[in-house]
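The protein record passed on below.

***
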Amino acid sequence: MNKYKRITLDGLIFQNPTLMLVLGTCPTLALIKSATSAAGMGLTVLVVLTLSNIIISALRKVIPNAVRIPCYIVVIATLVTFVRMVLEKFLPSLYDSLGGFLALIVVNCIILGRAEAFANKHTVLESAVDGIANGLGFTCALTLMGIICEFFGSGSLFGLKIMNFKIAMLATPAGAFLVYGLAIAVFTYVLDCFEKSKRVKANRIARENLLKEGA
């Protein structure tokens, strides 16, 4: 498999930071009650993660090993500061909805984890692909759960009123926790079924090859 395809599939599906590795749980549970806030946080992390991966990968041979984590934090904090300034200037409503969780991106374990586990060991292009894939995986997971929580919990979608019926609990932290848990369960089940079907297909092909060789 092409290495860039593998990196992309890992970030989006097989090593999805939210649904498989269960990282970034704090902003996930706090923001998925609103689809807009969930998507905004996801895209913000996508930008910071991609840029930090690129910068850290480019500087990986320059940064002393003994102080690499503090250096990562400085790079990420700088990027988060710029992103906060842009959001405050051009998207003040999104900036307000993200609140303190925007600043907490600096210590988001997804970004620090990819910097340490991937960007520190791979080329700039590979790190950029990894950042985009993991950022998209995080964004898609948050946005999907945000849509579910907002639609059924508030009867709206991206702030637009859709229906009067609603399940108020889904607009609370407890409801967000329930939706998050169910999303992980469903995602894991579907992925397991996919992996089993791949194994069955591989075993069938292997048996057919053995029969052909025996004939």
Summary: The CA atoms of residues 51 and 114 lie 12 Å apart.
